[in-house]
Amino acid sequence: MKCLFSFLTLVFMSASVLFASNPPAPYGHLPSDRQLKWHEMEMYAFIHFTVNTFTDKEWGYGDESPDIFNPTEFNADKIVRVLKDGGMKGVVLTCKHHDGFCLWPSKYTDHSIKNSPWKKGKGDMVKEFADACKKHGLKFGTYLSPWDRNHKDYATPEYITYYRNQLRELLANYGPIFEMWFDGANGGDGYYGGAKEKRKIDNRTYYDWKNTWSIVRELQPDACMFSDGGPDVRWVGNESGFAGETCWATFNADEARPGSAGTGNLNKGDRPGSAWMPAEVDVSIRPGWFYHAKEDEKVKSVDHLLKIYYESVGRGANLILNVPPDRRGLVHEIDAKNLREWKKILDETFEKNLARKAKVSASNTRGNDDQFAPANVLKQKSGSYWATDDEAKTPELVLDMGKPVTFNVVQLREYLPLGQRIESVAVDCWKNDKWEEFATATSIGNRRLIRSKDITTTKIRLRITAAAACPAVYGVALFKSPVPVEQSVKK
Ligand code: FUL
Predict the structure, then answer these.
(1) Is 11's pLDDT higher than 80?
(2) Model-level pTM?
């Protein structure tokens, strides 16, 4: 009897394997594993800190004496704590900005904190930040400006050796790096070891990016490299904090390299594009990238930060928000307060999916297989999603909450390992016994947040109005923000 039972179980299991539907074939360019991890980060901080903080400049000339770098109360732990409380999942530190001053005791130059009064030249700020991030569970990233207005060799081949040596120091000695930030600024004039002249380089060839990037791949294979032109993550094309209303994760990167901005449609991305190269929105909480006391009254308001959130993370991009320490070496109280209040509103908004108990049905389920069930959109669990048959490119999904629910944010997410498949959607609510459309959207990708006026309804319907391949939807959720959409800030 027992034997027969095992035999039947075996037959049943083989049959279900035989009849189980295959997942949809991936569509177009796909994210790498490191890019998928990067998408999960969504929001992290940028820290701009160098001699500029003490000279009140944005771009140091390169002749600043290390003597001026003397934060009196520097505390990486306190800074990282404030950033964590503000919802940041990581920190990218300007280890060296254009002025060439290094926040770590590099073996390759004297122009660093080892000649500053801070900790009598015995400190290592990169290490303190990396350790604080580790302690608080944040990921750590580094920025190393290719342009160096201090170095005597800048614009000669020797400088490339210097730059790569420094890159190795940063990538080998401070634990895992989640993002390496390269910028494309190459302004020309500088101190250059006393020469005080204008130096030009050919941005396409000078840094030999292919070989420079291979150092990052060798030492930190999981790190995504950012620049205005990729290779892993692209600049969003502005520093004001917004991705395009349509923002594809794919991009036409004819020639991916820092300084190549303008070759593609950075803000919107391109469809189908030549690579998976999602946008990162870099913006400062203050007008400048560095701390200036005169800007204390100009710290972005909570409403402004909310707008930035919805127009970056809410459009499928990642947000890197700059929070520059002041001369004490701490986050200024105003910045800390706005960050805290912003995070409180985000928490209040997103803590509960108001549709979590909904009954979910769809016009099509792939192979009628539970593996691709419509209800998967409520799970948001790795590997689970709702998918349709290959021909069903414009299906509908209904979430029936069973009782009236009031919301003002709709969240839609695609299952990224299968590519960006959906071209456009419409969302309807049930009103006076019929469906009424209240929103449409294009690119979905990692996370699309659609804000609306307060809507009270018992059910909503998602209509996929165009797709390049049958959709694979990872998540649908409804939220209620305490801040009405009308309360928006002009750019
Ligand atoms: C730019 C730099 O020139 C700015 O100073 C700042 O660091 C910004 C994030 O990137 O290219």
Answers:
(1) no
(2) 0.95
